[in-house]
Amino acid sequence: MKKLFTLLFALCVVVVQAQFTANRLVVTRVGDGSTALGTNTAPVSLLEFTTAGVAGTTVNLGSSTAGSRLTLGGVGAGSTTTVTAPAFSATTLEGQLSLSQDLNYLTLAGYDVPAAELSSSTGISSIAVSAGGTGYTFASVITISGGGGTGATAVINSLSSGAITGIRMTNNGSGYTSTPTVTISIGTGFTAGNITRVPYWQGIFSNRVVARLNNSATPNYSTNFISSSTPASTSGAVKQAVSVDGSKIWVNGVRLEYVAFGQTTQATSVINAGARSIGIFQNQLFYDLGFSASGLLATATSLPEASTTGASVIGMDGTNSSPGAFVFLDTRAGGDSRGYDVCYFSEIGSGLDKLYYNGSAWVPVNSTRLPVGAPLGNGLFPTTALSAITARIENGQPVIYAISYTTTNASTTTNNSIYVIRDNSAYNEAMVLGTNTVATNLVSAGANYAFRGIAFTPQTNIVLSVELTDLKAKANKTSTLLTWTTATEKNNALFQIEQSTNGTDFQTIGQVKGSGTTARAANYNFEHKDPSVGVNYYRLKQVDTNGSATYSAVRSVLFGKGGLVVKTTLVHDALDIITSDETSTPLSIFNISGQQVLNTKVQGEQRLDVSTLPIGLYIIRTATGDVGRFVKQ
Asked: Residue 261 in contact with residue 111, Cβ under 8 Å?
């Protein structure tokens, strides 16, 4: 027993940073699992799942240090006039997750404030004019006092013959728990109208932060900025950040704004309107205005870095439409000028809409209210609400992954779900559940958690033409044997085998010819005759006949005399390890008191279920004398 505790302080263990695996899903999750979500800010994490709903890497975002904090509003933390009736878009649409167009980076926008900040600690977002008075000039000084808060400042924005017609906030302040008093010098007769308060972190003068992650799953928080103050605006939830290659970022908040990666100065307004969702497809920025009759628009400048305008692409009825998010796909049936022939919308309160491009316009085939005119009334899931969505082509058919929420009260949604919707209909054919479309509840968030955004992991191919069912890597005495199986293939030219010693930088070490197009299972193998000492990571790069490519999951083996690798030392439900043993060897796990809590046998790369273990520090020992440790969170 004494020897075991001595090992706690004398461990020599290889620790490998958790990584994302290509062709999986990542979701934004808010909450800590123990505290009920309320109107205050909540911690944020990213959860990886296979497309079958099996959990993978977890990344807890943000820290306690200003500049690298990232939180989102809890349920009901909305931007309102009275701070008592939370708005839908301020909660359910926060935390939308995006994969860059080049498929290398995930981006997520949030607030640079601590978790559990009180929503009752509000800032002043706008001051309306009830009576303009007389004798005022732009030199008149506005004083905001009382209300329990500090820091709010404003200036006169417009005048008409000495009467105030507009006021612009220059700082939202914080800590206001009631309506303050507004007085203005040099003039008489001014009376304030509605004084709008919001949780202070939603004020335009509160710092926003964008987390950027590649496949290493390590967040970068260097993009930290405040919203543009021109044109004049008030406040707004920050919902989404999108990018082409991670170097330039467009953020969806009170308006559409542009920032460069790493920027710490004020953002630049490109569209003076707040959108429900934004996206970049084929180097074109699109934005969805929700209830607006303009519906989905494209910016006049394809990727604007300065103020521009937009033109409607898909119109709404302007009254009842409530789209939440959108995605374009190319099923190779024709398409618009960018090659897209299918578009899916999540409809707030009424499920999923589908449109196709007929050569000149977008035509709805599943819709409750699209486009302008009488609703078709045949949206998929007409009684189920969806918010964030992503999609890709799998074996020739669109597959949509969506986040659901509670239709009765979107602002209080917790323990919501990921749905997978397989559209097996023709590109211009309506989806019918149980006939040509299958919808499955994939996984739920859990008590005191809520899912918000969804995207694919970095290096995921949006057109998946090969169904890879198995990939194994086995260490022999002097080489690694890779074996894999495909269930079906379509236009599969070849597999490139890639190897890495750090799990990030891969190089090609060989290739194997594919089977072209086949509906039959095919088996493949490749021997790497010169592996490195230590951990070797392997993945497949599947290349189509047209040159497009997709990556497999990463497999790893350990070479050397004995050894144990703990792939990540902070775990929730699963512990990933690698041993160098060629045969099955006993492994035991002990708690901090020295009690054995698990005894099993392992060989090579393996995942152990530790979901039932209490939170705490644990020691791993193999029969060959290798030792490791991990912390159950």
From this structure: no
pTM: 0.70
Cα 591 from chain centroid? 35
Cis, peptide link before residue 231, omega less than 30° from 0:
yes
Please, how many CA atoms are within 13 Å of residue 414, restricted to the half-sphere of its CB? 20
> Is residue 105 a contact partner of residue 246, using CB atoms and an 8 Å limit?
yes
Report the DSSP beta bridge partners of residue 591: 618
Mean pLDDT to the nearest integer, 98-119: 90
* Residues whose CB is less than 8 angstroms from the CB of residue 248 and which lie 6 or more positions away in sequence, other chains included: 258, 260, 261, 303, 305
**pLDDT confidence band for 593 (50 / 70 / 90):** confident
Instruction: Tell me what the pLDDT averaged over the chain comes to.
Output: 82
Say which DSSP state 283 is in.
T
pLDDT for the residue numbered 244: 94
Maximum distance among all Cα pairs of the chain, rounded to whole angstroms: 91
| Residue 508 pLDDT | 93
- CA torsion, ordered 24, 54, 415, 436, to nearest 10 deg: 70
What is the band of 408 on the pLDDT scale with cuts at 50, 70, 90? very low
Per-residue model confidence (pLDDT) at position 180: 94
For 21-54, letters b (16+ CB in 10 Å) and e give bbbbbbbbbbbbeeeebbbbbbbbbbbbbbbeee
Q: Provide the CB-side half-sphere exposure for 128 (13 A, CA).
A: 8
Structure tokens at 465: 């033409």
Residues 6+ apart with CB under 8 A from 451: 27, 28, 29, 403, 416, 417, 418, 445
Q: Which of 585, 579, 593 is nearest to 13 (CA)?
A: 579
Token pair, residue 486, equals 């495909």
Instruction: Report percent pLDDT > 70 for the chain.
Output: 84
Whether residue 248 contacts residue 255, with contact meaning beta carbons closer than 8 Å, is answered with: no
- Per-residue pLDDT tens over the stretch 532-578: 877 888 888 888 887 777 777 778 887 765 577 787 777 777 788 88
With helix as H, strand as E and coil as C, how does 573-612 read? CEEEEEECCCCCEEEEEEECCCCEEEEEEECCEEEEECCC
From residue 422, give the alpha-carbon distance in Å to each of 348, 380, 382, 434, 559: 20, 12, 17, 11, 42
**What is the three-class DSSP state of 366?**
strand
Residue 390: pLDDT band with limits 50, 70, 90: very high
pLDDT tens digits along 250-267? 999 888 999 999 999 999
Q: How far apart are CA 605 and CA 500, in angstroms?
A: 16
Q: Is the pLDDT of residue 406 over 70?
A: no
**Nearest residue to 298 (alpha-carbon basis) of 268, 328, 254, 324:** 328
**Neighbouring C-beta atoms of residue 150, cutoff 10 Å:** 13
> Tokens in use for 110?
């949030």
- Write the single-letter amino acid at 495: F
Determine the 3-state secondary structure of 258 from DSSP: strand
| Range 521-536 average pLDDT | 87
- Residue 572 DSSP SS3: coil
Please count the other Cβ atoms lying within 10 Å of the Cβ belonging to residue 592: 13
Contacts of 547 (CB under 8 A, 6+ apart): none
Rounded Cα distance between 124 and 199, Å, is: 9
137 near 159, Cβ under 8 Å? yes
